[in-house]
Amino acid sequence: MIALTSLLHVLPLLLATAHGQLSGRVGPLTTVAEKNATRTCNVLDYGAVADNATDVGQPIIDAFADCGRGGVIYIPPGDYLQTTWVHLTNGSAFAIQLDGIIYRGASPSSQSYMFEFSSSSDFELFSSTSRGAIQGSGYLYHQSGNFVGPRLLHISGGSDWSVHDLALVDSPMFHFVIQGATNGEVYNMAIRGGDHGGLDGIDVSGTNIWIHDVMVTNKDECVTVKTGSKNILVESIYCNSSGGCAMGSLGAGTNVSDVTYRNIYTWSSNQLFMIKSNGGSGTVSNILFENFMGHGNAYSLDFDTAWSSMSTIEGDGIAYSNITFRNWKGTEIDGEDRPLIKVKCPALTPCTDLAIEEFALWNEEGHYALHVCEHSYGSGYCLSNASVPVTGTAGGYTTTQYINTPPAGYSATTMAEDLATAFGTSASIPIPTIPTSFYPGLTPYSPLAGAYAFALSSAYPSSSAHPSSSALPSYRRNATASTRPSTPAQSSTPAHQTPTSSSVGLPSSEPPSACYFATSSPHVTAVPAASSSTSTASVSSVHDSHTEQRVPHGLGGQHLRFHQHHGGRHPYH
């Protein structure tokens, strides 16, 4: 038995690099159950009140001081107001379990973050019920034409982390920025913003990051890779009346490689995918865009290295190479005016080793469609298979193809949650329910949280009546996720209250070690015993070690499985 268990632990490590573009395991090193066994810090014991009037920011910071080096910071169901921005740094082996809804209660003019994690390891932010949310009430900025303000969530640096089973709603500016992080995972999320530029869904840079099963509504970036990215896997993404997924904007010193986008469904958005730059330098290589499906989008394959919406950057252009677009289908609006395929590469730095395969998109107006390629070399459609000119010399090739016959197989299914209209910028945006599918015919890689969670809130509804850990069940029962309740009324806190900017940093140290080849759990350094004011009751453990498998239903692409070990996840074929 020991030998078999050890083999099961070793096998995912051996197979991880075979999947997609990931280079190894992603996610926390320890499970929520292991963190909870160390310590639990309930924010109600630190002064938080679920009344949508009392600041929850400082209680979270105070709880992190006790649980940020091992433990779970628990935010029970209820409505909370945040007037103190939370910046947590140098934490390890901790989790924030957000089962309530946090409302922005201050309106700074700065581009600060309501929640920021920096230089931390082995951590996660999640809801055990899939009903936790951060409501930014951005419309209070936007209704007066102001689109510069605070952002919701930032992960800066750090390693071995995850964010999942949450909703981020109506940010005054960007919703979720990942910057320079490693070994991360984002999944089972709904992001819903206003119908305006500058309200990005997810912007990511870093190494070895898996983003999957996410729905985004806005009118700017859906899930976008920025420069400084390597080994990024983005799949099962639902751009539901959004800006669409993209790469960029890219400028001087660009460095992007080994990125896969797979199973991307885009409805009524700016584009199916856009690569955007204007001049600049650096490289983009080893990229795969596979299984894209869309309807009613303004652009489809929009590869534009002379993008007029950004200022021209000094340089002969970024060197794009080894990029494949495979199995795209659906429709575009006004396809007679905007090419279904636009690959516009720099004249002095032509794109090389490109491939367009199985591309079946059509103009919704039905007359003809355009394919446009410039200085782009490779195979398929309007790409040139001629010899590539010497880099740095003017010349190259351009072509415009008029397509008069619809391609076979362009018809594509739709999703039940496709929005009939976008959300505006002058009224509150309701908190969405996280969907049960993010791409036609596929279920999430991980079930939405709540399938294994017990109702902690019913075990002790207030901080005045906390049972001991022995009073809580020692098992996890199944709980059916209910419909998300209506959004509570906006707090009466003045909209222009200046927030308290506060942060807490624990002394820098190495994260707890994890022995992946042993049958026992990783060691977590103990913290001092909890004080009498700190709850020690167990919170719900959502992701213990287990193996799951998802089988796509009749769609192209490769099937994927993953093995989850001690909270870390190892995707593999």
From TrEMBL:
It comes from the Eukaryota. Residues 466-509, 535-573 are annotated as: Disordered. GO terms for cellular component: extracellular region. GO terms for molecular function: polygalacturonase activity; rhamnogalacturonan alpha-L-rhamnopyranosyl-(1->4)-alpha-D-galactopyranosyluronide lyase activity. It is found in: Secreted. Pfam families: Glyco_hydro_28 (PF00295). The keyword Secreted applies. GO terms for biological process: carbohydrate metabolic process; cell wall organization. InterPro entries: Glyco_hydro_28, Pectin_lyas_fold, Pectin_lyase_fold/virulence. Residues 466-475 have a biased composition (Low complexity). Residues 477-506 have a biased composition (Polar residues). The keyword Phosphoprotein does not apply. Residues 1-20 form the signal peptide. Keywords: Cell wall biogenesis/degradation, Disulfide bond, Glycoprotein, Glycosidase, Hydrolase, Lyase, Secreted, Signal. Residues 560-573 have a biased composition (Basic residues). Belongs to the glycosyl hydrolase 28 family. This is Pectin lyase-like protein. It comes from Aspergillus japonicus CBS 114.51.
